[in-house]
Specification:
rod-shaped, 1 helix, 92% helix, mainly alpha
Length: 26
């Protein structure tokens, strides 16, 4: 369960960072 939580948090954080980078790159 702990691993699953960390993965979900990391995935959400990575998604936001990737989205921001894409917007800034444009």
């Amino acid at each position: 369960i702990k691993r699953h939580t960390k993965t979900k948090c990391e995935s959400s954080k990575q998604g936001i960072k990737r989205r921001l980078g894409s917007r800034q790159r444009r």
